[in-house]
Design a protein that fits this description.
alpha/beta; binds magnesium ion; elongated; six-stranded antiparallel β-sheet; Calcium-transporting ATPase, cytoplasmic domain N; seven-stranded mixed β-sheet; binds adenosine-5'-diphosphate; Cation-transporting P-type ATPase B
Length: about 290
């Protein structure tokens, strides 16, 4: 491939809303056969809203929202922001946590008004050897079958409630998946979110391979494993937790609407956050390289 022909390709990319790090990127784009898609912020909008508020017996709804909202307000995770916003709307100003710690891929932990609080996935309860009250477990299961993500709130050694959040699937995602298949790529949904939610989203956009409940550091391993099996892997993501996998992938694509860390790790940026631009990029590189053999 001559450099000038490749640069024509990258110029056309800019018109399509694709930023390409360097012309050499197009070469790996051509050979891709598998495309891993992060869920939150990539296939879905990532703009979550608080849906359900379920308290354990003896816990006050406003207090649940105050305490959980205060802790989540310190986190930048889209789930955390939805909870903090929803809590503020319902109970007003939130207290400032006395301490705060982010537990990657699981949730947050800290002290709010003297209570030692955790907010996050159910697996966090294992750290304190807590089990879910039956009513809350039921509320959680119900929310998940409705494609909502359930977040557990516990403090001072007791489970206090379940908050559920949901975000919308981008209306361009299903069409993008159809285009990936037409290009001969196998789409795979890769997410830290729970399996039930992940499978619901996958079904709605036409993906039949789902790798769910993946810890951030394991996204990288999934990419490496596929590469060991001889796959040429593209990965599309938006989050800090996607950065290592984006860098490892044969082709890393970041959502322009995502975090700077993801954009820096990727080879290509889909400026408008429209997944169809990933299909455009692959088509463009095949065409560009095809004409200059
Ligand atoms: P994804 O891969 O979908 O972008 P993450 O790896 O960031 O998700 O998080 C995995 C899961 O951990 C989330 O779906 C959520 O259940 C839980 N989680 C992570 N951070 C938080 C938080 N700040 N508050 C509540 N839950 C969280
Ligand atoms: Mg994400």
């Amino acid at each position: 491939a001559t450099p000038s022909a490749l640069l024509v390709g990258t110029g056309r990319g800019a018109q399509l809303g694709i930023l390409i790090k360097g012309p050499e990127v197009l070469e790996s784009t051509r050979k891709v056969d598998t495309i891993l898609l992060d869920k939150t912020g990539t296939v879905t909008t990532g703009k979550m809203t608080l849906q359900g508020v379920h308290t354990a017996p003896g816990t006050d709804t406003d207090e649940l929202l105050r305490v959980a909202g205060a802790l989540e307000d310190a986190s930048e995770h889209p789930i955390a922001q939805a909870i903090a916003r929803g809590a503020t709307q319902r109970v007003g100003d939130l207290p400032i946590p006395e301490s705060f710690k982010n537990i990657e891929g699981r949730g947050v932990q800290g002290v709010v008004e003297g209570h030692l609080v955790i907010v996050g996935r159910e697996s966090m309860l294992e750290d304190w050897s807590l089990t879910m009250p039956v009513d809350l477990a039921r509320a959680k299961a119900q929310a998940e079958s409705a494609r909502e993500t359930a977040v557990i709130v516990a403090w001072d050694g007791e489970v206090r409630g379940v908050l559920t959040v949901a975000d919308a699937i981008k209306d361009t995602s299903a069409e993008a998946i159809t285009q990936f298949r037409a290009l001969g790529l196998t789409p795979v949904l890769l997410t830290g979110d729970n399996r039930v939610v992940a499978e619901q989203v996958a079904a709605q956009v036409g993906i039949d391979k789902v790798i769910a409940e993946v810890m951030p550091q394991d996204k990288l391993r999934v990419v490496k494993d596929l590469q060991k099996q001889g796959k040429v892997v593209a990965m599309v993501g938006d989050g800090v937790n996607d950065a290592a996998a984006l860098a490892q992938a044969d082709l890393g694509l970041a959502m322009g609407t995502g975090t700077d860390v993801a954009i820096e790790a990727a080879d290509l940026t889909l400026v408008r956050g429209d997944l169809r631009a990933a299909a455009d990029a692959i088509r463009l590189s095949r065409k560009t390289l095809g004409t200059i053999k």
